[in-house]
Amino acid sequence: MTDFSLIETMRWEPGTGIVRLRLHLARLKRSAGRLGFAGADQVESALEEAFGAPLSSSPNRSLEDKRMNKDIVAPSLFSPAGRSAERSEAMRGSVGELGASIPPSSGPSGHLLPAGEKREQARGDLKTGTTESLDQPSPLRVRLTLSSSGEIAITTAPFTPLPENTVWRVAVAAARLDSANRLLRHKTTRREIYEAARGEYPPAAADEVLLLNEKGEPCEGTITSLFLDDGSGVLKTPPISCGLLAGVLRTELICARRARVQRLTLQDLRSGRLFMGNSLRGLIRARLI
Q1: Alpha helices of the chain — where are they, by DSSP H?
Q2: Selected residue with higher pLDDT from 112 and 7
Q3: Which residue ranges does the chain devote to CATH 3.20.10.10?
Q4: Residue 237 forms beta bridges with which residues?
Q5: What is the pLDDT of residue 112?
Q6: What per-residue confidence (pLDDT) applies to 54?
Q7: Residue 93 in this model has a pLDDT that exceeds 90
Q8: What residue ranges of the chain are covered by domains with CATH 3.30.470.10?
Q9: Dihedral, CA atoms, 210, 284, 24, 185, nearest 10 degrees?
Q10: What is the 3 state secondary structure string of 112-156?
């Protein structure tokens, strides 16, 4: 029996639902298929049951556009020229490498809109428990796990977004990722290497820790994807072949042609503007320390 679960950490927002839900579901189902996990086809209905509402098939695009711009703390990065540059190569990024079928022009294609009631259930292979009423006007952190046998667990907790002027201090870990380890491409509860890297620096000294691979190439943070603004108008992010997770925010930015894959060096990161980000927190300004 596999000793780890697949995991998705998502953000629920009032009036919007779970942001990037379709991208989260697509990644989970793809990983389940490749790793032989059961139950992925039940995740969508489990979320509906946990939140007490059906999935919306026609999300509010204006709300989605506002949310995406809010998550991207420096929208001026993305000039019209930058958005059109290197489109074909960008699409060979995480989406192409993993074989996803998400159209390049589409963002999230569905949201879960809660019915505004608190639920706690434990039934068969579905375990859910929300800690906050879903009619609250504040964001929630949604954690979903899928075991190899198909057991689904869903929990929520209050989530406080970072202030817009946040700049994370990012330290470089001595621990190294193995680019040949294909499990790194999937989001799982097997996090020993990330916990070891995070443990190298106390929280008071660094907000995030960057991991390199065995070749010394920057890959990702312990909980975030890595992005570089080199002044071209399109963010650069390492390819998953370096040994890293195909993050949902990363995939969305590549699909929107606001990022493209490129191998990076530490010198690149010191020469440009650094960002870290994930689907829960959005894109965060950062600096190496």
Answers
A1: 21-35, 43-51, 61-71, 80-84, 87-90, 94-98, 192-198, 248-255, 266-271
A2: 7
A3: 89-98+163-288
A4: 261
A5: 54
A6: 67
A7: no
A8: 6-60+103-158
A9: -20
A10: ECCCCCCCEEEECCEEEEECCCCCCCCCEEEEEEECCCCCEEEEE
Place of tokens 């390819």: 239
Place of tokens 């039934």: 123
Architecture of domain 6-60+103-158: 2-Layer Sandwich (3.30)
The dihedral built from the CA positions of residue 219, 223, 190 and 205, taken in this order, carries a sign that is positive
Contact 208, 223 (CB under 8 A): yes
Is residue 102 over pLDDT 50?
A: no
Architecture of domain 89-98+163-288: Alpha-Beta Barrel (3.20)
pTM of the predicted protein model: 0.78
65-74, 95-104, 132-141, 271-280: least confidently modelled range: 95-104
CA dihedral 269, 273, 276, 278 (to 10 degrees): -130
Distance CA 262, CA 41 (A): 33
| Ramachandran class of 201: left when φ > 0, alpha when ψ lies in -120 to 50, beta otherwise | beta
CB-based contact 111:18 (threshold 8 Å): yes
CA distance 173 to 159: 27
> Residue 117 has which token pair?
């009631």
Tokens of 270: 């010191």
Rounded Cα distance, 140 and 161, in Å: 10
pLDDT value at 158 more than 80: yes
